[in-house]
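Box S1 | Example of a co-folding query
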Amino acid sequence: MPSNETLRALHHQMVRIRVFEETLQKIYFEGKTPAFDIAAGPVPGEMHLAAGQEPVAAGVCAHLRPTDAVTATHRPHHVALAHGMDMQRLAAEIFGKETGLGHGKGGHMHLFDPATNFGCSGIIAEGMPTAVGHALAFKKLGRDDIAVSFFGEGAANQGAFHESLNLAALWKLGVVFVCEDNAWAISVPKDKATAIANNSDRASAYGMPGVLIPDNDPVAVYEAAGEAVARARRGGGPSLIEIKTDRLLGHFEGDPQLYRTKAEMETVTQRDAIRRFERQLIESGAMTQPDLDQVWEAARAEVAEAVEFARSSPYPAPEAALLHVFA
Amino acid sequence: MPSNETLRALHHQMVRIRVFEETLQKIYFEGKTPAFDIAAGPVPGEMHLAAGQEPVAAGVCAHLRPTDAVTATHRPHHVALAHGMDMQRLAAEIFGKETGLGHGKGGHMHLFDPATNFGCSGIIAEGMPTAVGHALAFKKLGRDDIAVSFFGEGAANQGAFHESLNLAALWKLGVVFVCEDNAWAISVPKDKATAIANNSDRASAYGMPGVLIPDNDPVAVYEAAGEAVARARRGGGPSLIEIKTDRLLGHFEGDPQLYRTKAEMETVTQRDAIRRFERQLIESGAMTQPDLDQVWEAARAEVAEAVEFARSSPYPAPEAALLHVFA
Amino acid sequence: MAVETRRLLTTSKAISEAIAQEMERDPRVFVMGEDVGVYGGIFGATEGLLAKFGPERIMDTPISETAFIGTAIGAAISGMRPIAELMFVDFFGVCMDQIYNHMAKIHYESGGNVTVPMVLTTAIGGGYGDAAQHSQTLYGLFAHLPGMKIVVPSTPYDAKGLMISAIRDDNPVVYFFHKGIMGLGWMTPNPRATGEVPEEPYTVPIGKADVKRAGGDVTIVTVSLMVHRALDAAEDLATEGIEAEVLDLRSLVPLDREAIVESVRKTHRLLVVDEDYGSFGMSGEVITTAIEGAFDHLDAPPARLAYPDVPVPYSRPMEQFCLPDREKIAAAARQLVKG
Amino acid sequence: MAVETRRLLTTSKAISEAIAQEMERDPRVFVMGEDVGVYGGIFGATEGLLAKFGPERIMDTPISETAFIGTAIGAAISGMRPIAELMFVDFFGVCMDQIYNHMAKIHYESGGNVTVPMVLTTAIGGGYGDAAQHSQTLYGLFAHLPGMKIVVPSTPYDAKGLMISAIRDDNPVVYFFHKGIMGLGWMTPNPRATGEVPEEPYTVPIGKADVKRAGGDVTIVTVSLMVHRALDAAEDLATEGIEAEVLDLRSLVPLDREAIVESVRKTHRLLVVDEDYGSFGMSGEVITTAIEGAFDHLDAPPARLAYPDVPVPYSRPMEQFCLPDREKIAAAARQLVKG
Ligand SMILES: Cc1ncc(C[n+]2csc(CCOP(=O)(O)OP(=O)(O)O)c2C)c(N)n1
Ligand SMILES: Cc1ncc(C[n+]2csc(CCOP(=O)(O)OP(=O)(O)O)c2C)c(N)n1
Ligand SMILES: [Mg+2]
Ligand SMILES: [Mg+2]
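Box S1 (continued) | Returned holo structure for thiamine diphosphate
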């Protein structure tokens, strides 16, 4: 069992992610009511929120340093924040502002942060080979940094998954592959897309360890990731970790989710990993209710400040669109 | 053990393939000596011969009907012939003649034969999804035909392998995936490319049966393929068969094979599957030496006739290049 | 008393109606793609089809574009007539080999003996903040590669007729629909995304351009959403006494070169509007076509207004800066006419 | 007594020498690809490098283009300067997403904060019977997509200098070498595939076209092997009193539009020769560039001689029919000049 300090840190991370995502959800609909227009409001375009998947980001990234590389997906905020991305510059990027991580060029699916060696992208499984490359560079440079690749269970049926795991295993690179199985790829359920039940079983196709975390538990994630990260760091090669997690919201905001039953929605809401974890923290005495309240309050303040920074920042000049094609 | 008739049929198939390939090898160098120029001679371009891999083609295709679909690779002749492709039109296509399968448009890597529902292509693993599609069509059309996809061990690290096996398994389609492990992908040995020793072990990543034939034995291939084909035909879904086979020649003709040790070359030559099979046939009494000789003689005659047909056929008109872009 | 009955459909409904009618007519037609089932296609192109035809004919797929597009190829060869949806054209890079090296070439490589009758549908276009990987048009890239027909409708009427033509065509057809013309409830409304569509099946020929507005002063050649932007601009220009002819190519392969040349011979001026990247694409091809066929009829060098050669930026001011629009088109046409 | 010493290299040797020199200079440079090790690259671009630098820096890969090109991207971001070889450009379809959506866009998406300094090398061209999937050029397709520099050398000298520039460039550079200019022992000999190459490292700027032959009667714009075919044609034309200027673009992105315009303003006539498919590609872009910059200087409509819009046929008579060559270029130029 991790120390109480670690448990509190995990909790804190999860809470600030949740507050960030819920805040963003509200903001996203600004200017999009009564008639929903995806192009309108302060935050246009698709918006994929990760509420429910906090245990994955918090549990894995707790083991990382800023020099470790992380590649994430179209649903990147939880991982970005857990890996230490500046929340203000993240928010500003999502608002399309000059002060954003990419000066408004990237947007929510294309966040690149040299300070935390973080990257993500909107193409399924696109970041998996990138992670292999980071790890190869670290090996060549004699650094004991590692790379972590996050991807959804839907991405595990993309060719890049196969090629990346094989290459990482072949070259014994320090990569941890983290499959966030939230049971859905937009409207397609896992069992209508994947021939077997658990992607962690696919690890054997590459001769690497595969671990299944069946219940979205941050502590279990933390422990499995600890082993995988340590193995990667000491040159022991890659691993695959699969977490059965929950997508509490739609695939993107505005998704009517007609493909999901009410019962399923209720089940996943009921088993909200943060609430369950909080019950455990109180039961074990690691935290009290006032402790928890304080965490939420601090998170709200942090997120409010980030949003305020984003809102009050200027837009980039229109002509700036022509900059940065080439270095 | 298959019947003597089957054994003789397997032998006959293997021999005609071998004679075809050896004959083509000689012809390929016509016009390319003393200075080797890949563009010169009656057969230009790359030439990938399958000598040594006859057990795979013969053993698998013995179970197929002309209405079963077969997709093959850049090294397609053995499979094409075993599946019943007309040898004359095959040869004519390789010579680039008007009488060829594709009127000279396709060439040796792009053979398409509606009569045997055969197709192949020069891009690694490209034909694997096609096979899945054939099988899907058969299911929709209520036909008990099946599809077989041949591919090299090098192709098993391509994304299309993963996606195809998953989709075929998910939809329980009648596909037999046949991995010809000849230990080499051009100059790259299997163990420098593949994180595990046997691709058949990857079948479990898709919940399908995986069978390993370790010794290039036509009878073992025949038996394993028989089961897989029968399973596919009765709606039992796909299988993966891996055969450790031998590439007796270079990757393509003209390949100096500097990457191969003399010892390895000798080993594979020594264990030539046809010669070994012939010894067994004689020992078991299934065939006598004169029987064998007769098979070779008949094969030589058949191949000579096909080559003669190809040689004496006219070239397509140059302007025919502009035809057949669209139907 | 005569009652005028006009049957108005959105483009997405026109497309799904076309597919439905062809599926009823021909049991070999079926649909495959991500979220084409319950979801009805992210852009509504398959809405209602699952309920009508069931999961055997409207098949959700894994996120395996290489596999399912390749599956469509194999199924087409073996007697079916698949429609496969690539959700956004931006994703072509994970499956292009199947598309351009296999689907597009088999008929040719087989010397005409094998046909691959399939339709690949895909969504194009930006303007709504979806950034660099979800906003591209890219039809110019596909049109560069031989062996597939390239269809890019602009109106509900054309969308239905071209879809029916595409399904009945014995060749692979790539059918690009712009998100901004689909008439979706969640996109910025475009009044021109709804239009009259006959109920009965009909075809619009692939390879024939269409004069969407006649005019004698300048020819504006474009496709898809930009047809509407050009029509808007033409209205503005008309108030200034400039009559623009708007030529909707409707398909890039085959390209109706005669129509381009004919219009330019009449107006003596050409503006190409293109939401695809400017260089090495459609704009240069159309201008070259005019040069080849109407050089001596030109009163001014043909001009183009295209997406600049930059990835699509996320932030609204930058994205709007890049996109051709009503004002920019009118300005470019005015410049051509007035010098 | 002065001895003239000319150091003659094939293009493939010039390329491998450039890589070797940069690898010696910069420990961050390494090579990845299929058969780049013992084999030395199927077209010799990495010959001798394994022996010099060992398997840690000259890395054979599985047939996993998506994985290893993506690996190059990640390695480049984390401080290395990889060279990845895509064996034939024809294979781009299995890995294009990594190339155009990721490698080419990261710098832009990051607002300039992340650089991806890598070189992607690939072989182009046909003419030797390798048929539809191993004979394409396709540089026009890559040039359509923003964010990568596109280099297409024609001579050993340029090949070395451009390779060194590409490796030192902080941007992704796609470096296309034509099999027919490599000077390989097993390809039809091309006397121009060998040329003088200085031993010391030097750079040739990316983005500058080069007048390979000066002339006043007609400008022939092209790249790569077709530069040599154009030079051959120019010799024939000279005997008829026609002086052709041969402009070698050397790179398509950035495109040296000034050089095209300048030459056309001088000669008043333009022929574009392109081994890539004709429509929606380089030929239209170059002609449009001339129209945009030199419309009033043209004595005849610019013309193009490109690969027809058909997949590459296997059989020799058909393939030769499709390929631009010395005679066809001379005929097209003659037609332009004499009308
Ligand atoms: C190559 C590619 N195909 C399809 C898509 C469209 N798409 C975006 S997210 C998504 C579902 C992804 O599912 P999963 O990997 O499970 O991640 P999740 O959304 O559940 O986090 C799809 C199909 C894409 N972006 N890229
Ligand atoms: C996508 C792709 N990558 C690379 C190649 C080049 N190539 C042709 S054959 C070959 C080796 C194939 O090895 P394997 O699959 O084992 O088949 P074998 O040649 O041994 O029969 C390679 C790399 C190709 N044709 N397509
Ligand atoms: Mg998911
Ligand atoms: Mg092999």
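The mean pLDDT of chain A is 98. Chain A has one domain: 4-312.
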